[in-house]
Write a structure and sequence with these properties.
alpha+beta; 26% helix; two-stranded antiparallel ribbon; flat
Amino acid sequence: MNNVLTNRHDLFILFDVTNGNPNGDPDAGNMPRIEPNTNRGLISDVCIKRKIRNYVMEFPPASSNGSSNKFDIQIQQGVVIERQLTEAIQSASNDESLKGCCEPEKVKNWLCRQFYDIRTFGGVLSTGQDIMRGSAYGQVRGPVQFTFSQSYDPITPLEVSITRCAVTKESDAAKERTMGDKHIVPYGLYMAKGYVSPAFAQNTGFTQQDFDLLIEALTHMFEHDRSAARGEMVVRALYDFEHVGTQGDKNPDQNKREAKLGCAPAHKLFETVHVQLTEGKTFPSGFDDYELTCAFQEADFPGVKLNQHL
């Protein structure tokens, strides 16, 4: 595999929404998701992954930098996964570069090489009555995982009525207008956490170029995903805690192991980022109502460096 990612990364992402619905709940009439005990807003991990997939579909890298990896997206509108897997089985069996592997492993390697989202997030590959069913390669665990995002403060979902001068059905032609509604959050600052494991990167062929594309997608994920419901969503900060090891050139093998394993617990690194309301504020109405500070010091966390994006 070409340039497979070797260092662990822990990601801390801040983004906000103004007068929009960041992630509607289909079980609640598409109202913004909310945690009932605290009224803090929630956004699912799959919602964030969808933004990344959409970005990669629209803006794949211009070149593969010598890698055999491609940047197709498996999970998208209209795809029939069983049909796609059948085609993958046939393509993998004819691929000379995959010789020496058993048939299920060939298919897994072919899919990881072809599809960025499988290579990144993993996937279930054993959906039909084929060679993948019951195989150890039928489920791929990806190196990149996200938590649910949660707002720092309680949100106040609003239901806003709207009207339309056109009607849908012939039976409604006599009506002057029809009514509808939208659900919005006036303002909410959300935090998400991401984890990138080089141990699983080895299994899927996730490379440094793939990671760079992930960071690019995260920093731009709302810029090209505008809609009436998400017109004002902004990524405010992205902290990338990269584990680089403490040994350097003195002991390269041990340093490589440290960088892969990690040099500090992720939660301790995340705790260095402090977000709080400015003095005198009891409820946020915009990003300026928050104070954002990062107390991370490399001396406190040997073997870890902070890469700030945005």
